[in-house]
Amino acid sequence: MAATKQLMDYAVDEAVDAFVLLKSADVRTAKNGKQYIALVFEDRSGEISGKYWDASPEDIENYVAGIVVHLQGKRENYQTHPQIKIFHLRLTTVGEPDDPNQYIEKAPMSRADMEDYINQTVFEITQPTWNRLVRKLLAEYQEAFFTFPAAKTNHHAFQGGLAFHTISILKLAHSVVKQYPDLNAPLLFAGAILHDLGKTIELSGPKSTTYTLAGNLVGHIVLIDGELVRACEPLKLDPQAEDVLLLRHMILSHHGLLEYGSPVRPALREADVLHQLDELDASIMMLDTVVEHTAPGEFSERVFAMDGRRFYRPSEPKPKES
Amino acid sequence: MAATKQLMDYAVDEAVDAFVLLKSADVRTAKNGKQYIALVFEDRSGEISGKYWDASPEDIENYVAGIVVHLQGKRENYQTHPQIKIFHLRLTTVGEPDDPNQYIEKAPMSRADMEDYINQTVFEITQPTWNRLVRKLLAEYQEAFFTFPAAKTNHHAFQGGLAFHTISILKLAHSVVKQYPDLNAPLLFAGAILHDLGKTIELSGPKSTTYTLAGNLVGHIVLIDGELVRACEPLKLDPQAEDVLLLRHMILSHHGLLEYGSPVRPALREADVLHQLDELDASIMMLDTVVEHTAPGEFSERVFAMDGRRFYRPSEPKPKES
Amino acid sequence: MAATKQLMDYAVDEAVDAFVLLKSADVRTAKNGKQYIALVFEDRSGEISGKYWDASPEDIENYVAGIVVHLQGKRENYQTHPQIKIFHLRLTTVGEPDDPNQYIEKAPMSRADMEDYINQTVFEITQPTWNRLVRKLLAEYQEAFFTFPAAKTNHHAFQGGLAFHTISILKLAHSVVKQYPDLNAPLLFAGAILHDLGKTIELSGPKSTTYTLAGNLVGHIVLIDGELVRACEPLKLDPQAEDVLLLRHMILSHHGLLEYGSPVRPALREADVLHQLDELDASIMMLDTVVEHTAPGEFSERVFAMDGRRFYRPSEPKPKES
Amino acid sequence: MAATKQLMDYAVDEAVDAFVLLKSADVRTAKNGKQYIALVFEDRSGEISGKYWDASPEDIENYVAGIVVHLQGKRENYQTHPQIKIFHLRLTTVGEPDDPNQYIEKAPMSRADMEDYINQTVFEITQPTWNRLVRKLLAEYQEAFFTFPAAKTNHHAFQGGLAFHTISILKLAHSVVKQYPDLNAPLLFAGAILHDLGKTIELSGPKSTTYTLAGNLVGHIVLIDGELVRACEPLKLDPQAEDVLLLRHMILSHHGLLEYGSPVRPALREADVLHQLDELDASIMMLDTVVEHTAPGEFSERVFAMDGRRFYRPSEPKPKES
Amino acid sequence: MAATKQLMDYAVDEAVDAFVLLKSADVRTAKNGKQYIALVFEDRSGEISGKYWDASPEDIENYVAGIVVHLQGKRENYQTHPQIKIFHLRLTTVGEPDDPNQYIEKAPMSRADMEDYINQTVFEITQPTWNRLVRKLLAEYQEAFFTFPAAKTNHHAFQGGLAFHTISILKLAHSVVKQYPDLNAPLLFAGAILHDLGKTIELSGPKSTTYTLAGNLVGHIVLIDGELVRACEPLKLDPQAEDVLLLRHMILSHHGLLEYGSPVRPALREADVLHQLDELDASIMMLDTVVEHTAPGEFSERVFAMDGRRFYRPSEPKPKES
Amino acid sequence: MAATKQLMDYAVDEAVDAFVLLKSADVRTAKNGKQYIALVFEDRSGEISGKYWDASPEDIENYVAGIVVHLQGKRENYQTHPQIKIFHLRLTTVGEPDDPNQYIEKAPMSRADMEDYINQTVFEITQPTWNRLVRKLLAEYQEAFFTFPAAKTNHHAFQGGLAFHTISILKLAHSVVKQYPDLNAPLLFAGAILHDLGKTIELSGPKSTTYTLAGNLVGHIVLIDGELVRACEPLKLDPQAEDVLLLRHMILSHHGLLEYGSPVRPALREADVLHQLDELDASIMMLDTVVEHTAPGEFSERVFAMDGRRFYRPSEPKPKES
């Protein structure tokens, strides 16, 4: 794949000719009564949408999420939003690339490196209760933790995104505890590792991610709290002991506000810090993508997850570091 | 106790001479630098506050929460709020009544009757998963369920208040499912019984009730969800099976709004109904007390738990029923 | 009509062949510049929408609200929302059913039964002022009260819906006053009967219901208050006497919050209860419809009148009652 | 009274020796258990509060609202709020001034002038329905309209304040209709005259003003709407005719927002303008008083009716007009 | 142009045949995949939109904002919103009118008259610091001040609108200071003249108005504050002297609420009045346009800048003035 | 000072005997009419309040803010808030410590170290415009920048707090740009250094800090923007050039929300990050103080600057780092 031009590399109005993955394919009815397919194309550089007009029943049967296709078209902007105008689309033939895994966006860190980083941090959780609970829950949800995205959309919505997001927070947390030594580092690290682990139950998996019934009716915050309580049994821990309650509180309060789904607001310094670091990493990741998709000297489209704000990409490139 | 006049029976400006329980006794410093004790007197008819000025160190040692005392004073109104102006206060002597249990406000239904009603309703939970979970959790928390108040203040803040409040909701629920037969009665009943059971962990007990650390850091909604998940283990139930999730959702969403501490909003008809019946019973109980403490033809003080509204007690008594 | 399959009975993808009423017919321009008619079909089982593409001027003249037509098509889902894909539409011919009244959704209780129930309740209003005001206003608006819907859309939007909604509240009110005997039953019943009577002035009538100018500029709450004041004159009542003010307050405060159009918030126990019962009945009626239109194991579309929440219909049918 | 120094004329720390009216006198208990009287002194220049410590039962009987007393003390500031430190207080003796009416703050316009202005404006209401309704309601509430305050506190809380506030709005309205000739002047004038007339029912009267039961349970906005509907009967007007509805809407919407007690938001240009002129006059009147009570170069205390803002009084006097 | 029928004069369904200016021309893709141009036509009477379907590449090149075209079509209503159904559109030929300036909507007051009015008012600013700052900044931004619109859309969105809006406020201010003589007239006038002057930097110019980068990143309120500080240097004024701060505060607080972009809330009587007069003039101007575009007896579309309210145009014409 | 026990070292109920600084001394009237002085004692370890009852005129003259006094008393808790019960207070005599500077709380970093850190960071601002503006403004406000507190109360309310808070943010910023290399480091550093520099104009100085008139009427955000614009003149920079606008935007948007006084919301990635780092440092500093003042196993009082939340101090000390 090395030499091939990636989806995100095409300039506006440039012709596109590439193998890409169909990330999603929704059949809709146009206002003229005919059907079209709203497609999202993906490769390792990112994703971009396009509309396949006047779709025949056969097209609808062929072009479904999860397969690799050959795409010819043009990179355009639709209301400052990038899209592909499709000229020609076809299934791959024998000998052409057809492995979806080669086209899925992944975390910019290998799984092995991520596992190392997490294991290293677990050693730093020197309080035995927290250490045991973290080990136990990580062991149970290990596979999903290292492959699931951190969200359906918005930020870290790629394979391995959940672990990558967790590690980004842990890196920030390491800087913070160094700068503010009164903070309880083991508590902050344990909370950071578990805070989003419930997403492995809330979301359906790394591909074509949707919400599960448990995700919709209970939510990842309370789901992982339930699993933590359940893990106390074999570890012979009292779920109402102070140290267990502190860790449960870290998880439960990490959305910061009741309106955002936390049943309690942060009442520990470390819980407040975890909430802030979570927001900091999520927003930078989101804005990196937003700014990258905006032309220099222009404002982005409204970013819904950032209160509908539009962000400016300066016309001048950023200065060289000293 | 039968012939004795009760605290709530005294009219404004009437002299008070009675044995009463000290429900709480907080030592404070007056603006002139001297200490006084802010007391709350209680008997089975209710509670009323009074201030014991210029308290000596000995007074402070004597007059503590939980003991029966002899009170002489006058029933007054302080800014439309009833209080006792204390003329004389003393400890009881030998032979005088001194059993605090005789002076504690209790639910207006005997424990036996409450147990009967709950047991009867459990029979109507015809879905096996919900029936087993309700039985298991009730068995574990039975003693507390029938003795704890439903809240520290506001409504049902008396011994047995938790079970009584639960039963009031169940009675309303029986009327509602009869009128709207599409509703899932067993789900509504199971949710109603468990919805506040977490208060047995959130609150410290039936007397001098305070919040526990678990109550402050986790909250009764998530505490009982955790216990429910734990109860699945011996019952060999999957906490993520649909029927278990439905019951968990009933509990988790019963505050109605995220801002009120529910991590999810009601997404089942029965969950929405449970939330509404909970509010209906709580508000009527609260307003009954408020109106009872207000003179005919007057507005009450602001009721904080009802958005600070003031309620009017009509000057005319309510008409006889036909 | 007995043997005919009703609109609500068709399964997804099932062919439809039926006589139905055109409830509404709005001519719109498609994005391709051509005109189409957005139709709503109705029979006694409910209503469902469909689009008639490429409408000729003659079609536009023919297919207007209020007539019976013959419809051939297919029951589909458009973004989880049911609709009819129209294959063929035609006017009825001689001998075919053409009486719109046979296809209008009606209250699930006969008018005679509704009148009986209301009359019965009026007897229970034992306070003379309230009894006379209720009789007088019911007499004046009787015809509209028993035929109007309770709203343009959302809940009880069918013929007789206003009286049916009022009766549902009265039934709940009867249960509540039995359970909480301190409540003033006659006041609650009188308030319940009058609370929405202003809708007979606010709305245009039982069919193709729209808002009147009086509805838009004054609103049903204040409209019925004005009529009540006017009714005092022949009854020789002082509109500022306490008992009249209590009843006016019941009506004026029944939306609960100023933001919802009540000029005063409930300041009587009975006013607060009326507000809550109004919401309880309206929300259950709305959700019954929503859930009925949702497939088992699926979430409904967002329900705007319930804060945009989506509701889940469990995949398992509800358990048999014991 | 001419030569006497007025209450508002005393500087901070200046000795006060004057006859003044007791506007209000509330008996309260100090934190040391003794009683004191919270007094408000008034004369035609305004009002100022003071505390009478260690009040004997005789003092409490003597110093009641509505009498003239002789006051000796010192003008002080308590947390930037002006007050009188009382040195000596006594009842008046024979021959000393004792007519409360000589000490009541009044509108800065004579009643005769106010009546003239209103009559003059009624002539400009050239639409017959509005003219007749305004005349009829003014005739009924004339005495109260020209003597009541416009509010219990905050702005225009003086005798004649209701009419004076109405006239201030009418003056602004005359300027506005001259500048924006598309506005319907007769509608704006009629609405302005009636907008607060319901205060004659909502408030108890010109002295020691409190809210009536009608004021608390219905409110001045709906009260005057009811009276307007009632006035239609003898005038043989239909309360649902367009011109009557326009006038009702002017009154009903004049608080601008539902949250402020209007059952409908302004839906007529003139209704929106009336709301804005009402706010403009009320806020200027309130701020004139606030700034007058603030020392040059200082910020006022928080003004609750203006969202708790503090207002600055510049240290330099305002420049001479050209 | 005198005899020609103007755009705003056409009735619904009337044939249109006129030379008009293209105010804006946005190319969009229809749901059928073809391109169309969303046009806004303008002449001195106002503006109206229309869609040019199935646009060829040549059409797209021809029909761009800023040129005069010949339009044939029909005046229609699309969801109560006026629009032109285009029958035929063509470029102008030699000899036909082609000067865009003849078709631009302008302030209803000549530039000379506006300059006179402003100059006259500057004389009334008798405080020397304010007078010098106003003169200095007006001199610098004179050309833009008299030609820019007051906003991109909503109100005063026409050439000269900024100066016209300023003058309207000044006229209201003159009435107000006459009625409330305690107000500091020179401060109010100086603040009114400068309050929106920053729009000359925030907006791109009188035609095809857009926001500049300075407008987006800083905003007109802070931009003019910066210019005022800069103007202090040559005038040898201290930007932190009290009189300069008062004027800066007038500008900075004129949006009234922090949520509306003012960094401080009004803390001077005159600042509060300026904010209210700004809203009064803006809302009347907006509603005059809204009502003019609404048929008698109908409600307008929702007006977004007025909280989405709809406004009613009475069916009866307004009465003659007396 | 080394061996002396510091104010923050005393346990509850321990006797206090120490020289301390009077940080503030407010004379108030008790409810019994006598005067007392509300004192705040300070030394380098922090501050604590106490009340001096029954103050004579001489006491009031003696005990004023800014002097060193000798204090004997007892460390108590008043509603979980620490205070000193004063037994004896006297002025210092000859030979006793009396230098206020020895008792003022200071930044935990020397001025020389802070200057070094800032100078070092300025070198990393490799974009010339930003570098020059930062140097110019730092040079102008240098003395105040290194001595002022960062706020009147809440966080960093000590001498040198402004520079120390700025440096804390810069340290966090260095970690963040290392972790997210797409961020524009020079812009983030320049914005961080200038973001609160306006506090040198908004606040009165390092001792007995109050708000200046400029602070109240303009606020520190806009004040420093004005100074930046003024600084452009001698540096021959255009205040509306893109690079200057980017830096102005960093300052103007750093409060994040309009409601918090920023006239614009962050529209640059770096501006959003600056806002978040500002909050992170401020909240950790505040909570460190809050938790330090709370007993192990207890909740703190409500922290107003953190939405009134209470924070828990775990009963167990935090675990040793690995």
TrEMBL record, chains A, B, C, D, E, F:
Keywords: Exonuclease, Hydrolase, Nuclease. The keyword Nuclease applies. It comes from the Bacteria. GO terms for molecular function: exonuclease activity. One of its GO terms (biological process) is rRNA 3'-end processing. Residues 162-283 form the HD domain. The keyword Hydrolase applies. This is HD-superfamily hydrolase.
